[in-house]
Design brief:
Keywords: Membrane, Transmembrane, Transmembrane helix, Transport. The chain folds into four domains: about 55 residues, no CATH class; about 350 residues, Na+/H+ antiporter like fold (Up-down Bundle); about 110 residues, Rossmann fold, CATH 3.40.50; about 120 residues, no CATH class. It has 27 helices and six strands. By secondary structure, it is mostly helical. Helix 19 links the parallel strand 1 and strand 2.
Length: about 700
């Protein structure tokens, strides 16, 4: 029965081995789980009694994993990112591939005595790093959205483009080397021109037609309200464009999927698309690494261990040194050079593709494939060590070499304020951390109010456009204290945190408070389950989108029922009074909602992600709350303010104006949570709110 279901048995074996091996790698070997996935692929052919694995089917599912993973990378990588790093990625990647190929060719020809064709093919396999491995490595270390991560991704995109041309050149090269037929220079130039035309046409179609068509399609699908249809549309776009890029324009699957994601990144549905496709990305990426392990003939470690170590050394020492030197020559910072050197210290999928094509063309035998895969496994397994060594290597270089000191103090573009920025940007300014549609709207209001603003944004933001609009712009990760120092956080008046990741936002909050404990910080949250992550003090304003909408709806419905909301028939004074009453009701209710959530009633326990950072943050918050309760108990009878009557330290969205309009007396309690337990006022809650409003 199992033999008639090759896809099912392949998935059962692949996932069944990947889980325990991935767990062992993470838990005991302290390496990324992908090392365990590769070992799982190696063990698939060694453990007897397992369900049969169809290697060709598994390779196809692995190709889907590459497509989805690169599509996800493209969703977070815009055209502006490529433009911002073109000065280092374009010349650097081309030079690195040329030098790595030359190094491998010389080693294979003069050390091992291979013929010229085999030596060149061997050198080419050493020149291109695995995009999948680098993407995962950057994601694990939180470097994807930093400038160093953007340089690495841009570098690999250039490598992928160059590899496409290499694959076109290999057939005529093989004919020349093997003496098969007459190959003219005009034919080679024609093939290259055809490939270049295909790539350019594909990119133009994606940037022009795709930029309009893809968001339009997603908008139509999203209008149906079906989550399944939207996910299906996202997956179809990723896989369909990747296939079309290869079938029509002879562009690699990975590159086609990357451009599809990059075009969708400009759409308002990019975040939702990334979220919906993430589980599929993770599942199929696992199968890619399992398939890599299955390509290995494990006997090569016994028969040719020295050769495997030599190839690994060429990659780990030769390629990394070349890349490191090129980045420094292009006058980028030391950290960027070290990060990129760690990224290219391995080989992967394109090396296997080039080796397979060369073997089919007769340039080398199958032994080259086993050698390349073995070196790939060794370098991928060692790659986390290179990332872990970056701080130590940097410190040692800075202490010993003057050139390293100069390189260490360099800043990438947009990671510091322009030298001609006025003093207005260095005292009393507003710092805005994050970039999204909500931040764009906030900036319009702040600019209209003539406020001095420094933006700390990812490289994907329109940096030059924002600078032209008069904002101070710093591109980088705000969890890095030096980025906040560049924004002059010690002299700022207010900071707005509007990041997508609330745990990362908590880290920025802690760093900012350590640098300036008097700084007023406004935190934008998407749901109230994370309110407990942030302290309830006079310097912190928590604006929760979910809670704001809920309370605003309830307040305005009640105010409208009492005739307190202007409908166009009142005079100016009456309209102003009605609007003020509705606003006062909203802000009172918002304050009490935040208070109740912080207190944590039995029906509303704060839910936070189960991470060490979140647990540590909650521990500190609980300790602060315990101290405040003890102080309140000691002051009992001394007129201490009560949270229920406006003494709560957490401010409402417009706290300053609230102070001016707040009435004396008992406020209105927030209605009890409805059946879903999320604190939204239901029909019963609105009825209770109506009763209290009429008493008032």
């Amino acid at each position: 029965m199992s033999s008639s279901l090759p896809l099912l048995t392949s998935l059962v074996t692949g996932f069944g081995l990947a889980l325990p091996f991935g767990y062992l790698a993470e838990r005991f070997l302290r390496t990324p789980a992908l090392v365990g996935y590769i070992l799982a692929g190696v063990s698939a052919g060694l453990i007897p009694g397992l369900p049969a694995v169809d290697e060709s089917l598994l390779e196809q599912t692995a190709e889907i994993g590459v497509m989805l993973l690169m599509f996800g990378v493209g969703l977070h990588f815009s055209v502006r990112d490529l433009v911002s790093v073109k000065g280092v990625a374009l010349p650097g990647a081309v030079a690195q591939m040329a030098l790595a190929t030359l190094l491998g060719t010389l080693f294979g020809h003069f050390v091992w005595g291979w013929n010229f064709g085999s030596a060149v093919l061997f050198g080419l396999t050493l020149s291109c790093a695995s995009t999948v491995v680098v993407t995962k490595a950057l994601e694990i270390r939180g470097l994807t959205y930093q400038m160093n991560g953007q340089v690495a991704v841009g570098w690999l995109v250039v490598q992928d483009l160059v590899t496409v041309f290499i694959m076109v050149c290999l057939p005529p090269f093989a004919q020349v080397v093997l003496g098969e037929g007459n190959v003219s220079g005009a034919a080679i130039v024609g093939d290259l021109a055809k490939t270049l035309a295909g790539v350019v046409l594909f990119v133009v179609l994606m940037m022009v037609a795709g930029k309009k068509a893809l968001p339009w399609v997603l908008k139509l699908v999203a209008a149906t309200g079906s989550r399944e249809l939207f996910t299906l549309a996202v997956v179809l776009i990723a896989i369909g464009i990747a296939y079309g890029a290869t079938a029509i324009f002879e562009v690699s699957y990975a590159l086609g999927a990357f451009f599809a994601g990059m075009v969708m990144q400009e759409s308002r549905y990019a975040h939702r698309g990334a979220k919906n496709s993430l589980p599929l990305q993770d599942a199929f990426a696992v199968l890619f690494f399992v398939s890599v392990g299955m390509m290995l003939d494990w006997r090569i470690f016994i028969d040719r261990p020295v050769d495997v170590l030599f190839v690994a050394a060429l990659i780990l020492l030769g390629t990394t040194s070349v890349s490191f030197g090129l980045v420094l020559l292009l006058r980028w910072p030391l950290d960027t050079a070290l990060t990129l050197a760690a990224c290219v210290a391995q080989i992967g999928e394109f090396s296997f593709i080039l080796a397979a094509q060369g073997i089919n063309l007769g340039l080398a035998d199958k032994g080259l494939m086993s050698l390349v895969v073995a070196a790939s496994i060794v370098t991928i397994a060692v790659n986390p060590v290179f990332f872990a060594m970056i701080p130590k290597v940097r410190n040692r270089l800075v202490l010993r070499f003057p050139w390293a000191k100069k390189a260490a103090v360099r800043q990438p573009p947009h990671q510091e304020l322009p030298k001609d920025a006025g003093k207005d940007f260095r005292k009393g300014q507003i710092i805005v951390v994050g970039w999204n549609e909500g931040v764009r709207q906030v900036l319009e209001g702040l600019r209209a109010a003539d406020r001095r603003i420094i933006l700390v944004v990812p490289p994907s933001a329109p940096l030059n456009q924002l600078e032209a609009q008069g904002f101070g712009v710093i591109s980088g990760d705000a969890t890095d204290p030096m980025i906040l120092v560049e924004a002059h956080v010690t002299s700022a008046s207010v900071m707005l945190l509007a990041l997508q990741d609330e745990i990362r936002m908590k880290r920025v909050f802690d760093v900012a408070r350590e640098l300036n404990n008097r700084l007023k910080i406004v935190v934008r949250l998407r749901n109230h389950s994370s309110i407990a992550l942030f302290p309830a003090d006079a310097q912190t304003v928590v604006v929760d989108e979910e809670l704001v909408v809920s309370v605003a709806l309830a307040s305005n419905v009640v105010a409208a029922s009492k005739g307190r909301v202007p409908d166009g028939t009142e005079d100016e004074d009456e309209a102003g009074e009605a609007a003020l009453a509705a606003r006062r009701l909203f802000e009172d209710e918002y304050r009490r909602a935040v208070a109740r959530i912080r207190e944590g009633s039995p029906t509303e326990k704060p839910v936070v992600p189960n991470t060490p950072e979140a647990e540590a943050a909650l521990a500190r918050i609980r300790a602060d709350e315990a101290a405040r309760e003890a102080k309140k108990a000691a002051q009992e009878g001394g007129g201490a303010p009560s949270p229920a009557t406006g003494g709560l330290e957490t401010a409402s969205p417009k706290a300053e104006e609230l102070v001016e309009v707040q009435e004396e007396g008992e406020g209105i309690e927030l209605p009890k949570p409805d059946a879903d337990g999320r604190g939204r006022p239901g029909l019963g809650g609105l009825k209770d709110l109506w009763g209290r409003w009429t008493k008032r």
